[in-house]
Design a protein that fits this description.
Largest sheet: 7 strands, parallel
Protein name: NAD(P)-dependent dehydrogenase, short-chain alcohol dehydrogenase family
Number of domains: 1
Structural class: alpha/beta
Strand order of the largest sheet: 3-2-1-4-5-6-7
Number of strands: 7
CATH class: Alpha Beta
Number of helices: 7
CATH topology: Rossmann fold
Family: Belongs to the short-chain dehydrogenases/reductases (SDR) family.
Radius of gyration: 17 Å
Order of helices and strands: EHEHEHEHEHEHHE
GO molecular function: oxidoreductase activity
Pfam families: adh_short
Keywords: Oxidoreductase
Helix content: 40-55%
Strand content: 15-25%
Length: 251
Amino acid sequence: MSQFGFDLGGRNALITGASSGLGARFGRILAESGANVALGARRADRLEALAGEIGERARAVQMDVASEADIIAGFDAAEEAFGTIDTVIANAGVDGAGMIADMPEDEIERTLAINLKGAILTAREGAKRMIAAGTTKGRIVLIASITAFEPSPGLVAYSASKAGVKQAARSMAREWARHGICVNTISPGYIRTAINQDWFETEPGKKQIARFPKRRLMDEEGLDAPLLFLCSDAAEFVTGTDFVLDDGQTL
């Protein structure tokens, strides 16, 4: 349960990558704050379970962000359930881990397709619908990463995709500013999730944690307040901004 009181009542949100990890948490905290949430991802069974847990404010929307047709169909389903989507969180991603000299071409393409192209297409589809509906308080949040500006051996494709997300968000913020759509990014530090938990149990992973100033990983709830703020009416004057939330890991 989030301890922060941003009121998202009346907002209709679509969240990608919502079947697990951060995306699932985002769905929960937005619904707790009053928003209707369309939970988008490929794994329908997990989405349905999460929607059942959240309750009437949630709908499961099966979609693959690597496909524009899937994204459009996902927005169609979300709008059928709730009406115009005025809040978009582009969170879907894969880690694309591996030394770049050994990474197959198709894995590089997959990482860029989901993390970068998928984020752009998701934001674009949301903005197109907000503009068509005359929405003046649109909110789009894209999830980037501290790897967007920190050298990250073993995460070349991933870090490149997240750097692209940051710059795309700034440019989209400029394009849509006069439509009242605020576009921002959150760049989290390392958070223990299903994607990375095995790595951080290894000796190299433990050494990485020991190098952080606070010698710990972040908890998922560390993103709650900034995310809720950026989705709320209170963020009217914030656009084209990257929120770095890393527990000092890049210091």
